[in-house]
Structures are given as structure tokens and as C-alpha cells.
Amino acid sequence: MSFNPLAEKGIPLDDQIRDWRELGVAPVDPDATHPYTKCRIITMNAIEVESVFFGHHFSRFCTDRAVREHLAHTRYIEQQQQKVVNWLLPGTASVLETTISYEQQAVDLTAWLARHEPDPYLKQSYEFAVLEDFDHLYRYANLYEMIEHRQAEKLVDGLTEVMPGRPTAWEHRHPVDNVRDPYDKATADPRSKLHTLTLVAAEQQVMNLYMNVGPLYMEPIARQLYQEIALIEEEHVTHYESLMDPDETWWERLVLHEYNECYLYYSFMQQEPERRIKAIWELHLAMEIEHLRLAAEQMRRHDRRDPEEILPPEIPETMVFEPNKAYLRQLLDTQIDLTTLGAGYVRESHERFERMQQQIHRGEQPPSEQVIDEHRARFGREYRLQTEGEHPDPRLREPETTPA
Amino acid sequence: MQQREPAAPDDDVVEVLMQQHGVIHNLFDEVRASGAEDRQDAFSRLVRMLAVHETAEEMIVHPLARSAVPGGSGVVDDRLTEEASAKEMLSRLESLDPGAPDFLPLLDDLRLAVLTHARAEERYEFVKLRESTDAATRTRLATALKAAEAVAPTHPHPGINTPTENLVAGPVAAVVDRVRDAMRRANADAP
Fold it and tell me: Which of A333, A369, B15, B175 could pair with A392 in a Cys bridge, judged by C-beta atoms 3.0 to 4.6 Å apart?
């Protein structure tokens, strides 16, 4: 009973445009909604945003009017899908609360994909970066308690731990050291292509969010922290997108985008406990099946190749949002000290890394350290949520505290 | 951007109000999470906190926003409309038994209304208030607010019989009166 999106029948494209009533979705409850439902919303928003911008770039490089018209049509539908998905987020949540959900999403999405990645170099690349998102969650959680006087536990609900990862201060590498080597499209497992595309989309959306909402804050420490972490997200987008084979044709990429959307909507619909949200995942899957069919047709016509050549023979194991605590703790124990040198990973710091660190920090504490210092000064402690015991790395255990 | 004067966090009325928003949100969580036996107690604490907070806003924050913030009158009118609708829900809730089947759904409605109201205050009122007032004014108002909170504590110490404890057990109207008195006194004592 394996599901094959290429063999399914979707909704005809002409029937996919939605009216205001259908677009006017009610937001989820900020307190009662499962944290992983929010993570699924955030992931699918990122996926739709990527599909829209991919379509725009494709169009800018395309000379065939018929193709541009087709891209415009599906892109408009993807925009409506993005509106429905992202408008599920509640306006009563603050930007910082949404940010914390974004980081929880980045951590548990990346960890799951790393655990299921068949290629060792790609797996290493995801493992490397997840420790950085993990650290961002901890920094923002401390900011959250300072500004809003609530604890991030209310948002992550104990599913994801909150404690230091690879310290954000160490994440500022020289830009050339963020360029990885690409997979080879001829030999790569199709799952690897999907995983990489998902991570590009997710990190790109985090980057876009922070680069736009950061200056809307008044508190100097909040403005600075968003600025610092937005720069790390630029590194992450560079990191993940450089893993994709630049020789993939536009048509291959289009087919991979549409297949990935089918894969993720299909995955999330299996897991979604909220009936109303599950219905959205089902509806969007039916729309994407048609987008995939049309993309496959175009690939056959323009590339003169069968899309089956680049797609998985059957839908891969469904992606699941679930706790990854033990896995993350094992990475915290073994990979904190890694940095990059060229396309590879090294344990020792090197000249280019040191010079970058010197240029950006100038011997001062960056905002990601200041936020913890300010939190300690105010509350006499840091904010952490360590459900499985103390930090695996003795250097990153909380220092002795004094009563506030 | 204009550099805000760095008043110590607890000495800034906007910080104290934001802190109270956090406490109110937590109290809603407590009521939702409590079983039938503890629900009345958690709900009473929520009601008292709401009374302290809203009374203080009506007495000092909204009037200040009206006069100090450009366009403040319209912003405050919108907030008062939200408050009136929340108060109506609250009084319906108070007439229900916390174990009644309608109680939790109505509590959800109230929670979303209060969260929406609080977020609107933070976005449209507090931001402007911070811009248009000086640190000394905000410190004075923070003191008044803390004095008001002290006469109507939301977490009474068990086993000690004090006038405060009587107040805690008393009706919300009494809380509101106490808060008003305390704030008038604090304002009168201000240099």
C-alpha cells in the first residue's frame, strides 16, 4: 500500500484558486496547540516560500513564454497555499514566541533528517549545523524570559531541551569556509536531495524572518541578538545550498521541489492530531500531486528524461516531528568543538577562523553572550530546560549562581 | 533609533505591566491545567490578578497614554472596548461553577480575549508610552503599581491571618477599591 504521488490523481489546476472565505483561515490556539503542530506549520510555510522564490528565479532565466505562464500559474497557487499555512500562526503570539517555535522546528527537523540521511558527508553537515540552531534556541529563550517574563518551557513543552549548543560566538566563520562540496546528482540517493532541499528552505525562512523582524524590537539587546543570529542564518543557507548539485537542470529542480512538497504534506498528514490542520495538509497534498504531474510532464518534454530517474522508487519513510534528545546529547558530547575549513570539518581552530573571530568580536562579548550575562544579572541564573540531566559538556554547565 | 533611558527593569512601569502580562498568562495556564478541585483556587488568583492589573491600567496607564501619546485617545478607546468585552466574559465565568461543562470553553474565550488585549497594549500603547515619557515618570508609576499589587497579593501566604488574607478571600470589588486607594496614596506621596 505504498503511496506514489506520481501515480495519484490530484485536483485540476484550474480548480485550485481559492476565494477569500477559503483563504481566511482561523489561527491556531497559541497555548493549546501542540508544539509540533506549530513546527509543521513553520516547516510547510518555509517549503512554500522556497517554491515561490524558486519559481521566480526560474522565470527570470526562462525564454519560453508558455513555460513562464505555467510557472506563473502554479506559483500563484503556491502563494495561496503559503497564505493559508502561515496565516495559521496566531497574532497573539509575540515575535519572540514565534522565533522560539522556529528554533524548536529547526532543531527537531534537522536532527530527524540527520538521523535518516544515507550519505555520511551530508549527515555530518546536518549534524554540524543542528548544534548551532540548538544554541540559538537557548539564547532566545533567555531573551524571552527577560522581556516577556515567561519561560520557553511553555512553548517547547519539554519536547526539546534548552541549553547551550555550539556557542553562537564560535559560529562566526569566514564566509568561504561555509561553502561545502555538492552531492553528485547522478549517484546521490533521492532522499538526500529531498533532505537538503528541505533544510535550504527551512534555514532560508529563518534567515528571512530574522532579517526582517529584528529591527522591529525596541530593546537594544533584542535588536542585537536578532542581528547576530541572522548572520549565522546566512552561513547556514550558504552551507546547505552549496550541498546541492549545481548541474541539476531547472526541470529536475522543479520536479524535486514538487515531489518534496508531496512528501512533506503526506508525512505531516499522517502525524497531525488537529483535525482542521490535518485537512489542510490533505488538501494541499491533492494540489501538489497535480503540480508534480505537470512538472514531470514538462521535464519529459524539455529534458527528454523520465522524472522517475531522479525520484525515489517509493515514498521515503515519512518525516516525523518527535523528540531527538538522546541524539542531540550525543552530538553535544562529541561535536561542539568542530568548525569548518574549506569544504571539510576540523576540530582545531585555524588561522582564517581566528582572524574572522578577531574581526567580528574585537575581543568583546557578542550579543549572544551579553543576553546570558544580562539574564544572570537580573535573575541570578540562566534560563535552561535540561530534562535529561546536566549538560554533556562540562565546560557548558551552568556556573554557580548567586541568589537574585 | 532613539536610545531609551536605561531605567532598571523593575523601576519601569512598562516593564512591570509586561511582567504582569506574563503572570496573567501563566495563571491562565494554571487554571487550564488544574483538576476540578484546585480549579476554583487557581481561578480566584487569576481573577484577582486581572483586577489589580486592569484597575491600575485604567487609573494610570490609559490616562497617561491619552495625554502623552499622539493619537493616544483612539488607541486607549480601542483598549477600553476590549476590556469591557473581557469583563463581560469574566462576570459570566464567575457565575459558573468551575466544574460546570461550560466553564473551560468560556475560559478559553476569555484567555484569547485577554491575550489579544495584552498584545495590543504592548504593540500599540506601551511602545509609544515608552517613547513619549521620561524615566522618572515611569519609575514613579512603577512604584504606584507595585504598591497596588502589594495590597492585593495573588499568592497569599497560607496560615497567616492578616487583613490582606481577608482581602484575598473577599470579592473582586474590594480588590478594585483597595487598588484604587493604594494608587491614589502612592501618587499623592510622589515627590
Answer: A333
